Structure to design on (372 residues):
């Protein structure tokens, strides 16, 4: 089966290069995969001094002249979270942690077509993992732009595209916590080869990966994972132009087989945004592997009061094991996001959890996220 999927993937890679679809420049858009935003890598300007090696720019990092390396950009992502939990059968508790302390470096080469990326989350601690150096690595890859809208990536780069919420970056997610299906099915990293593109009417991210998560234990199997997003009304200058629909699919082998799919829709109208996703799994390979049958869905509504302040509400329903009738879990979230600066977020969330089997709870979450 996996040989067949690999053949199909290679055919898709070859064919998509020739599609007559209006392209979106990945270097300018730079969405989704990396935390770094609005960074332009260009050649250094000529200097009057003799044989300058490089020039230092605040936004461009180190920019080299007369070298195969075009530029080097160092960035730092910080995420700190505070939480207060109240439950009927557990003592109230307050917790603070540095969830993300992540230095990263990106090297740009070959006229902005080839990049290398490395970053590591120094504070990552995953249950069931040794949490040594390799398992703290976030990105370790080389990518090459085939066209301005399409790239091939080899290595561990971004989250595996299994559900839309699960593959969202930490900085860009709507709430402090991902949805239940996002943090159960997705929110993981694995090494592989993937093809990523952004076109006017369609985006996609598809690849073949080792089924190991976070370089834990290679060699137990492979998987196919991909998501595709259609923008059918991109040409229309009307209320429907920002309507999107998409799907994701993930199947593989890791101490047993698993497969899951999700269906996604999103809509933006002026300052109002809504997104919905349903996912179903016959076994799944998230941070923890399981062969349980599970499903869930969420709907998120948000409104931008102004460019710096947004409010949101989310309903989140999840069944971790469909063989048990009383395993349903629901979360209701109200949130406020403040962006004092371009690359900084302050997030306040109130979460109500209703567990059909177990006690209900209330939680207040506060997060600070910034990139420098």
């Amino acid at each position: 089966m996996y040989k067949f999927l690999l053949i199909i993937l290679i055919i898709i890679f070859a064919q998509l290069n020739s599609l007559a679809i209006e392209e979106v420049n990945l270097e300018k858009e730079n969405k989704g995969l990396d935390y770094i935003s609005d960074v332009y890598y260009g050649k250094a300007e000529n200097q009057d001094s003799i044989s300058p090696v490089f020039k230092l720019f605040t936004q461009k990092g180190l920019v080299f002249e007369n070298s195969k390396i075009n530029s080097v950009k160092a960035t730092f992502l910080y995420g700190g979270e505070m939480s207060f939990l109240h439950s009927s059968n557990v003592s109230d508790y307050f917790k603070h942690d540095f969830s993300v302390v992540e230095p990263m470096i990106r090297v740009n080469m070959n006229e902005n077509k080839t990049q290398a990326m490395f970053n590591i989350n120094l504070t990552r601690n995953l249950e069931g993992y040794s949490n040594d150096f390799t398992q703290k690595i976030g990105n370790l890859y080389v990518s090459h732009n085939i066209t301005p809208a399409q790239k091939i990536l080899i290595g561990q780069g971004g989250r595996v595209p299994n559900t839309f919420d699960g593959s969202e970056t930490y900085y860009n997610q709507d709430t402090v916590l991902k949805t239940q299906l996002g943090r159960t099915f997705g929110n993981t990293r694995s090494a592989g080869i993937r093809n990523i593109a952004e076109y006017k009417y369609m985006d996609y991210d598809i690849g073949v990966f080792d089924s190991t998560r976070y370089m834990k234990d290679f060699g137990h199997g492979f998987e196919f994972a991909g998501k595709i997003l259609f923008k059918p009304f991109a040409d229309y200058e009307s209320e429907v132009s920002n309507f999107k629909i998409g799907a994701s699919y993930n199947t593989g082998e890791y101490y047993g087989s698993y497969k899951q799919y999700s269906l996604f829709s999103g809509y933006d109208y002026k300052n109002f945004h809504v997104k919905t996703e349903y996912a179903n799994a016959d076994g799944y390979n998230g941070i923890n592997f399981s062969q349980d049958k599970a499903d869930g869905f969420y709907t998120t509504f948000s409104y931008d009061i102004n460019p710096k302040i947004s409010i949101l509400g989310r309903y989140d329903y999840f069944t971790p094991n469909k063989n048990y009738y009383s395993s349903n879990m629901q979360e209701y979230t109200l949130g406020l996001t403040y962006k004092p600066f371009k690359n900084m977020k302050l997030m306040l969330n109130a979460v109500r959890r209703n567990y059909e089997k177990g006690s209900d709870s209330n939680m207040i979450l506060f997060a600070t996220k910034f990139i420098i």
Q: What stands out?
A: Residues 2-371 form a domain with the Porin fold (CATH 2.40.160.10). The chain has one domain: 2-371. Residues 1-59 have pLDDT under 50 and may be disordered.
